[in-house]
Amino acid sequence: MLCDLVGWEGGTETYLARTVPEFERAGLAVTLRARRVTEATAFGIAAQEIAWGSDAEPPAPAAAAEVAHLIATLDPDFVYLSNVFDTGVVRAARGARRAVARVHDHRMFCPHGDRIYPQFRALCSHPMGGACLLNAVVHGCVEGVHSGTLRRLRAREELRAAVHELDGVSVGSEFMARMCVQNGVERARIGVVPPPVDPRSLESAPAPRPVSRRVLFAGRLVRDKGLDSLVRALGRIPPELRPALDVAGVPTHESDAMLALAPRLGVEVTMLGRLTRAGIDRAIDDARVVAVPSLWPEPFGMVGIEAQARGRPVVAYAVGGVPEWVGEAGFAVRRGDEAALARAIVTVIDDESWERFALAARRQGQAYTPAAHVSRLLEFVGI
Question: Is the entire prediction scored with pTM above 0.90?
Fold first, then answer.
């Protein structure tokens, strides 16, 4: 396995911490190399560092040569690349019998990184290419009208060409599969393998319905995650029905500005700060519903299935891969429709309807185990 980081910094690292041990339980011996290692055994096995280029750096030829030598020496059954943006390293992986890349987010096929325009906050639906240059002029994408935009685009196009040479691409949602197809990857070479939840979230029975009505928002406290939109939606709910809002995440200047709306709208907010995995589960258990009001095209939306694993419904905006997992366990409404989001929250937290949504959530959440994920991934790879 070749990955960007071994440590505890984000959703991709959480994914790997759940997946790597499951590879070993499935009978595979895993060799782990990363561009950067901050905690060598974070994923359950020892990792070593090979300093290849990040998504904002040029390729490192020496690192590609080291990876090629490692593959020639080990002769692995397959190489699994996760957030590797060094074109030379991706091409070196072709020396293995099989090589598959996990595309976690939009950076592989979007030089701006999130498929949302910096100006006007509209969503981009174009494949990477000439439209990126036009959008740099019109919407200020990447570095705007600057030679850096052209350099970044050319580098990403070279990376895309290297990914096309791999045996396959693994993604978490049909939405991401369509993005890959739009960028020239054959559909037959794409495996849709949703990410796993922490198995400990499924080991105990869900907590009973909380007495108090609380909504949980958990994630990065940035504008595109839609926290301010959620606050406005809660402000639309009549005071006698309005739930309180719990916010899990590290406060930022952006979050301070977004939450400034709350007192004026009569929305009670409790800041929970950055939580451990166990802390997240407790926060989910304390909530009647988890909100995913993202305004950017979420590649998947992990917090949603983490809520389902604990038997909690979800209300969300229907962006990216989110509608694929909501199912009968809540609602996905039109992006930015705060009135519809408010109605969905009122429906889900209602004493009479909550149990139905909660049961559906727990049933759906049980499908996202690490064992099921790795089994589907190995089937796609052909092992």
Answer: yes
State whether residue 45 is helix, strand or coil. Answer: coil
Q: What are phi and psi of 240, to 5 degrees?
A: -70, -15
Give the number of residues written for the chain: 383
Per-residue pLDDT tens digits for 218-270? 998 888 999 999 999 999 999 999 999 999 998 888 888 889 999 999 999 99
Q: What is the mean pLDDT of the chain?
A: 95
**Two tokens at 379?**
């089937």
Where residue 252 falls (left for φ over 0; alpha for ψ -120 to 50; beta otherwise) is beta
CA distance 137 to 130: 12
Q: Which domains does the chain have, with CATH numbers?
A: 2-196+370-381 (3.40.50), 200-365 (3.40.50.2000)
pLDDT value, residue 251: 87
Instruction: With beta carbons less than 8 A apart as the criterion, state whether 36 and 61 touch.
Output: no
Which bin fits 375, alpha (ψ -120 to 50), beta or left (φ > 0)? alpha
How crowded is the C-beta side of 286, counted as CA atoms within 13 Å? 17
Task: Give residue 75's region: left, alpha or beta (phi > 0; psi -120 to 50).
Answer: left
Backbone angles phi, psi at 178, to 5 degrees: -65, -35
**Terminal-residue alpha carbon distance, the chain:** 15
90 vs 64: CA distance, rounded Å: 8
Q: 155, 56 in Cβ contact below 8 A? A: no
d(CA 98, CA 197): 26
Task: Collect all residues with Cβ–Cβ distance below 8 Å to 219 and sequence separation of at least 6.
Answer: 225, 248, 249, 292, 303
- Are residues 248 and 214 in contact, defined by beta-carbon separation less than 8 angstroms? no
Residue range 186-223, pLDDT digits in tens: 999 999 999 999 999 999 999 999 999 999 999 988 88
Biggest alpha carbon distance in the chain?
67
Sheet with strand 32-37: strands edge to edge? 47-49, 32-37, 2-6, 79-82, 99-102, 168-171, 190-192
- Answer whether residue 7 shows pLDDT above 80: yes
